[in-house]
Amino acid sequence: MAFRLIDIENWERKEFYEHFINQVVCTYSVVVNLDITNLKNHRLYPAMIWLLTKTVNDIPEFRTSLTSEGLGIYDEMHPMYTVFNKENKNFSGIWSYFSEDYDAFLKDYEVDAEKYRTSTCYAPKDGTPSNSFNISMVPWLEFTGCNINVFDDGHFLLPIFTMGKYFEQEGKRMLPLAIQVHHAVCDGYHVGLFVEKLQKHIDHFG
Question: 155 an active-site residue?
Answer without folding.
Answer: no
